[in-house]
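Example 3.
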Amino acid sequence: MPRETKIPLPTLERLATCYRYLTDIESRNVETISSSAIETATGIHAAQFRKDLSYFGVFGRPGIGYDVDDLKRRIAGILKVENEQPVILVGAGNLGSALVGFFGLPQHNFHIVAVFDNNPRKIGQTLWDLQVQDVGRLSETNAQLGARIGIIAGPAVAAQNITDVLVDAGIRVILNFAPTTIRVPDGVGVRNVCFIQELAVLSYYLSKLPEPNVG
Amino acid sequence: MPRETKIPLPTLERLATCYRYLTDIESRNVETISSSAIETATGIHAAQFRKDLSYFGVFGRPGIGYDVDDLKRRIAGILKVENEQPVILVGAGNLGSALVGFFGLPQHNFHIVAVFDNNPRKIGQTLWDLQVQDVGRLSETNAQLGARIGIIAGPAVAAQNITDVLVDAGIRVILNFAPTTIRVPDGVGVRNVCFIQELAVLSYYLSKLPEPNVG
DNA sequence: TAGATTGTTAATCGATTAACAATC
DNA sequence: TAGATTGTTAATCGATTAACAATC
């Protein structure tokens, strides 16, 4: 099998942004869209967007632009988000609860099919339509469910243990909300979301901004 | 005033990661740490980390490494996270509630001092130690509080309105959790966190991973 | 046809990495 | 001193942008 050209990570992130945008405008009756219209709406540079698509041989029509439905389908095909995918979540705290209840997830074909925690006070409780399960039974449960996407919404101290359990249960990619670095074996993908780091970067921005209304 | 060298964004993100890590190990009695130990712990390449620090004239000792306390203080000074900073939050839903209750925020000197919503059923309710206020009074309230950091935890359809209100109220940097692109005037900083986009990128990873146990 | 917008190339820009003299 | 690790330079690498012939 010929190796696919290595796709830059920023390209994938931009395609995800674009896909989210196309989902937004689907309801409106727009048939075609140009790369510069996408730039206006999303901030993604038009030439860059066209280049991003060119990695995958996605084509618009010169002089016209892109068919919205077609473009959306093509990007969905690239990101492999056309079909429902089961997701398991570890950590039934506030954040975990927010994620399970987040209506945007099913809308984008991600379905949280099980929630786990190690806190006996939480195990057995109901979170929306799911019953919180003992994290000790995660592997067993996922043998049935077959999820390959996992979300860590537990505290930093537990994150590495949770990671190990997830990987053991066949999870192949992990979205980590715990503010700590987790180690995974080769062949497992991780993305980290860390509120505090985001705020820290914004704090730097803030310190560099000129003060308004001074003098 | 001589213009400071433009700092690469990835440098700031790495410094934020490093800072979070140094906060973690503060409790353990480690006095010094080398750039390669930081690489092991955080995945940040050692040479890159040293280069990152060099933008700011932060120095370790050849042959020894970095004094942990000193390094932490210096990075805090760069990111301007040494002192408590007030933060206001818009959106008292599940995510907003999770953020207000997130113990990691005060630990890192970010204090959510007010929560707003436009839903009459939520206004007046208590979220942890805060009472949800009418978003219509945000500007008025923030005139007292003086927060310059804002968090958007509302739905995508409301995000642009919320943004405008925040900017109007003197907010200078915004952490946006709504899955949509917001427009801000020049001089206002934004960072977006979008769960769905993270999952979409992971979904791509997943499709590229070799299937284990096949054949 | 004229106008608009594409895909792609080449030029630019910026970030990462390797290497090493300096130094604790 | 010998070993370790720094800060910085130069080389490499990769991503972004501008420009334009092709084409609807």
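The two ends of chain B are 66 Å apart (CA to CA). Residues 9-79 of chain B form a domain with the Arc Repressor Mutant, subunit A fold (CATH 1.10.10.10).
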